[in-house]
Amino acid sequence: MLGYFGPKGTFTHQALRTVSDDEAIAFPSVRAALDAVRTGEVRAAVVPIENSVEGGVSATLDELIAGSPLAIIGEIVIPVEFGLYAREELRLEDIRQVLTHGHAAAQCREWLATHLPNANITEAGSTAGAAAEVSRPDSHYDAAVSARVAGRLYGLTELAYQIEDNPGAVTRFVLVGRPGPLPGRTGADKTTLVAYMREDHSGALLEILQQFAVRGVNLSRIESRPTKTTLGSYCFSIDAEGHAHDRRMAEALEGLHRICPTVHFLGSYPRADKVRPSIGIGFSDAEFDEASAWVQGLDRETVTRD
Amino acid sequence: MLGYFGPKGTFTHQALRTVSDDEAIAFPSVRAALDAVRTGEVRAAVVPIENSVEGGVSATLDELIAGSPLAIIGEIVIPVEFGLYAREELRLEDIRQVLTHGHAAAQCREWLATHLPNANITEAGSTAGAAAEVSRPDSHYDAAVSARVAGRLYGLTELAYQIEDNPGAVTRFVLVGRPGPLPGRTGADKTTLVAYMREDHSGALLEILQQFAVRGVNLSRIESRPTKTTLGSYCFSIDAEGHAHDRRMAEALEGLHRICPTVHFLGSYPRADKVRPSIGIGFSDAEFDEASAWVQGLDRETVTRD
Amino acid sequence: MLGYFGPKGTFTHQALRTVSDDEAIAFPSVRAALDAVRTGEVRAAVVPIENSVEGGVSATLDELIAGSPLAIIGEIVIPVEFGLYAREELRLEDIRQVLTHGHAAAQCREWLATHLPNANITEAGSTAGAAAEVSRPDSHYDAAVSARVAGRLYGLTELAYQIEDNPGAVTRFVLVGRPGPLPGRTGADKTTLVAYMREDHSGALLEILQQFAVRGVNLSRIESRPTKTTLGSYCFSIDAEGHAHDRRMAEALEGLHRICPTVHFLGSYPRADKVRPSIGIGFSDAEFDEASAWVQGLDRETVTRD
Amino acid sequence: MLGYFGPKGTFTHQALRTVSDDEAIAFPSVRAALDAVRTGEVRAAVVPIENSVEGGVSATLDELIAGSPLAIIGEIVIPVEFGLYAREELRLEDIRQVLTHGHAAAQCREWLATHLPNANITEAGSTAGAAAEVSRPDSHYDAAVSARVAGRLYGLTELAYQIEDNPGAVTRFVLVGRPGPLPGRTGADKTTLVAYMREDHSGALLEILQQFAVRGVNLSRIESRPTKTTLGSYCFSIDAEGHAHDRRMAEALEGLHRICPTVHFLGSYPRADKVRPSIGIGFSDAEFDEASAWVQGLDRETVTRD
Asked: What ipTM was estimated for this complex?
């Protein structure tokens, strides 16, 4: 059984559907979804990690490192696309009352102003809740702006799709499980971690980055975050290209472990975009092996004699 | 006239109150608030920039650098504290129906479970909207969880305060105006910018950070952000300690301008926490002046003669 | 009047000849030659700085920074080529006694073994002294191995030239004067300095190098040297590509001056090889000017009004 | 049998005496001494590596990496002290003719000017040769300035000692053998290598240094040297604190091997000064082992189940 940060019909729900069509449990918060993984109530859960329309993002990183350890085992990227959903086929000019979440209204502002200039937009607690309300036969709302998954879930008719003002936006989710054997290497993997610095000096971030750079590991995301324990102290949330089974990544992780007071390893898992990183000269596993062999060979067995 | 990302009664509204008690205009989105600054409808606007309960944060950085230039001219930090508000004094055990936003419900989950174990929690579009609804004499909701500013705004009675599960959290806002003379130096200033890198290579971030490090400028926040134009390309959103009038910061900005294809300077302004950064040996204005004089003096006027 | 580290007939003398054909004073040591510049006895002096056959090199750097300041005003590169010189034309097989300095003998070992297998090689105090001795009509030495300048000086006949085993070697000299206006920029210049580090920590050299790297200044030579005052402490002798009048070099020098307890600037002068360095994107004078103008412009004069 | 860069009576000979009192072979050049190690004629040889009075130093590094591999197996540091030696006890005022090498004369200039103001100083091919000449009963030289070892070797009487103008100078030698098992770790070791860079770009040296810095390895000497194959190309001769059996050094060597086209490892051996380096937090062998164990443990064996 899988879980997700609900309610039903959100983009998170849509992300979950890309992983499994089985029944899944919606949880009211990221923490609740992750705690259900921790207790074993669900095997894994889908939670938003970047740019989510429905919020919960900054909570996710914090919750992942609070409590007993969890592991990111997959990544899901979903286009942020909104549709207009009604109980039945309707002409746009007949729509008077639209229900949706404030963020969705903001992201579809231009489309709504152009196509529904006379409609009244009312804010709901979530886009999914708006779709649910519109599905009630006696609702006085004509249509909802929501994710497609919500329109389908509540048996609504899609009147328009991709009505967001900025097409091409995506939002990112992770599938979180309990620690266990890492997902196998695919050659297009990502490693997520949170590294704490020893003290708040200007060089700390440089030292952390150099641990990656000298081993040829590129980062695809870095974000400083205030630590909760010390005022004015920071940690860094990092996505690095590669898998902990890659020699360059393993050595970089060892380096971080030595120079940082704490490193939370949050998982190595396949990238959603399946892009394979270019590996610079000197940083392949074969070159790491060859270098180790060279150093071993410096201590030659043939004894120097008189 | 000032503006802010509304609606009335949010933490952003509370942040605005720390700057001015005059009437202000609430805008339905961060973009709308910033566009009103651009058009001159308002002199400046308060928008969330970090950790906001009500969302809008990631939008803020994007909106600041879209359209015509804006300038951050102040920073406001607000504790994230929730209260329970009703139309009149009530005993907690008599509360049956509570209305609030989903994020607020999540952040007060433990308090609500302990003190209102039998209450029904309903999600509203915003905490401010919840307070507005509760203020209606005929509302069937007994109480709202919201910011204090909303409770006061709607004439509600505060039944409890600081009911959040994680005390001590803060959220950060900025006051945004049109570009003009920079706010004067206070010695406890912050500079915000977005630096684009020339290409997606592992060393780009290091090169950007070294421009600061070699001039002794500490960073208080860094965040990589995908650029919209090129897939897989990044820019960096940075808060640095100091003012563009500090010589070390001015030289670092010049350095960034030379190595980055684009640098968006978003302002130098007083830090909300009034903490003065420690300036390392060699990085004070006096030391910059002294070094310039030394280099000038290398070209001695006394001519060498036979 | 110029001076040089003598005696007459050495490679240093040969280097001096590339600068001036006028009479010049030979000094018995690098210190003596430099002190003569300091006292004004000579206008400038030629001394070896790298790879000299006749020694004196490591002394040169030390002597340049001891005593009152001096300035390198030119660089001279000389091929290390030896010839075989006799009082008159001789067949090689008739040569029995060869006189030369030990280093020259070592560098021509193979040629001497091949062409003069039966000759007896005797060590003199210098190659020039050997040529002088051979020029005496009653000398019992048949030939000298020396620089061409010595052969000519003592009126000897050149029996063979370029007899060194490793052709292509060069040795480098500098022309040293008293501080004054720097030689003008040629676009192919070099700057020499000695930078002391604040303490013996592993990062000191990196910090010094980054002062150059962030301004796009390449180094063409770096050498750590023990300082005389503190056991286990080091300074760095550096040749950097460019002139102190180049903006990138001036800013790098300012940076060094701020982070190092002492920087000895030893001069900017034309490179002997006339090679113009490639200047990376962002590091030309024009780009420095443009960046300064940009930072100035951040503080816009147009006042923001209500 | 050991060899050394002769002749007898030099500081190199004196350095050899600190290693062995057995008979040893003097070779006329550094190359000859090292080739004798290569061919097995001698087991090991002592050659100068830094600041030698008698020259041969820059040759040593070049010769070490030319031909078949050699290994530095020990380091010897000798104070540069000169004495005045005569056939018998003499009053200083009776000395008229002094013989010595030009460098020694330069280094004792002040003493000679003060104590032997009327003596005539003649240059010999070496200080040792000067002592040999003075030891001849019919020599018309009264005294020689040389190393003590030469005075003793030729049965001379020491009239004065430590007559050098700059007391405290030292010169450094290495004991070179054929590659074999590395000398055991003492905790106060040094590793010598020559690293070639991939191309002549400003970042190459920084990249090499960072390989050491991220593993907490300090350098005690660095020197850029032109490579013979490509004009304008450089390699770096480096002494690093620690032993190839130290985990931090082994990993740094592996890193260099991966990023450099060529690395000549020249040996790990006990430091002459027996100073133990301070090892920063995170860089001890125990911490390397602990970090490796941590990374191993990321791949937990307990399988996550439904």
From this structure: 0.86
Decide the pairing of beta strands A120-124 and D2-5. Answer: unpaired
Which residues in chain A touch residue B200, judged by CB atoms under 8 angstroms apart? Answer: 218
Which of B202, B210, B212, B221 is the mutation pick for testing A, counting most A CBs within 10 A? B202
Residue B269 inside a domain? The answer is yes
Q: Would you place residue C304 in the very low, low, confident or very high pLDDT band (cuts 50, 70, 90)?
A: very low
CATH number of the structural domain spanning residue D45: 3.40.190.10
Residue of A nearest to D256 (CA): A291
Q: Least CB-CB distance to C206: which of D124, D213, D234?
A: D213
Q: Which of A57, A222, A232 shows the shortest C-beta gap to B222?
A: A222
Which alpha helices (DSSP H) does D124-189 contain, by range?
127-135, 148-153
C243, C258 Cβ separation under 8 angstroms: no
Q: Which helix (H) or strand (E) holds D41?
A: none
Higher pLDDT, D30 or C284: C284
Pairing of strands A189-196, A83-86: unpaired
Do A187 and A277 fall within a single domain?
yes
**Which other chains touch chain B, taking contact as 3+ CB pairs less than 8 Å apart?**
A, C
Q: How near does any CA of chain B get to the CA of C89, in Å?
A: 43
Same-domain status, B52 and B173: yes
Torsion of Cα atoms, A145 then A148 then A154 then A157, to 10°: 80
- pTM for the whole structure: 0.89
Sequence-distant (≥ 6) Cβ neighbours of residue A119 within 8 angstroms:
A95, A96, A97, A98, A112, A142
Minimal Cα–Cα distance from C232 to chain D, Å? 8
Q: What is d(CA A74, CA A271) in angstroms, rounded to the nearest whole number? A: 8
Backbone angles phi, psi at C267, to 5 degrees: 130, 155
Average pLDDT over residues C27-52: 89
Question: What is the mean pLDDT of each successive set of 10 residues along chain D, which is 306 residues long?
Answer: 90 93 89 94 92 60 86 93 96 95 85 94 86 95 95 96 87 93 96 85 82 93 75 81 97 96 95 91 96 91 40
Using a CB-CB cut-off of 8 Å, the residues of chain D touching A259 are 281-282
Alpha-helical segments (H) within A6-101: 11-17, 30-39, 57-65
Q: Please indicate whether, in this complex, the C-beta atoms of C292 and B254 are within 8 angstroms of each other.
A: yes
C223 and C274 together in one domain: yes
C-alpha dihedral over B251, B254, B255, B260, to 10 degrees? 160
Domain enclosing residue D120, as ranges: 84-152
Answer yes or no: do A94 and A37 share one domain: no
Of A258, A265, A303, the CB nearest to D298: A265
The answer to whether residues D200 and D274 belong to one domain is: yes
Confidence of residue A199 (pLDDT cuts 50, 70, 90): low
**Model confidence over B74-96: pLDDT tens digits?**
999 999 899 999 999 999 999 99
- Any residues with CB less than 8 A from the CB of D126 and at least 6 apart, and which? C102, C123, D7, D9, D10, D54, D101
DSSP SS3 for A118: coil
Please report whether residue B146 resides in a domain.
yes
Helix axes of D247-259 and D285-297: crossing angle, nearest 10 degrees: 70
Q: Return the pLDDT at B46.
A: 96
Q: Are B176 and B47 in contact (CB under 8 A)?
A: yes
Which residue of C11, C53, C197, C202 is the best one to mutate when testing the D interface, meaning the one whose CB has the most D CBs within 10 A? C202
User: Is the separation of the CB atoms in A123 and B129 below 8 Å?
Assistant: yes
List, for residues C171-216, the tens digit of each pLDDT value. 889 999 999 999 999 999 999 999 998 765 667 888 999 999 999 9
Distance, C-alpha D267 to centroid of its chain: 12
Structure confidence at residue D228 (pLDDT): 62
Sorting pLDDT into bands at 50, 70 and 90, what band is C29? confident
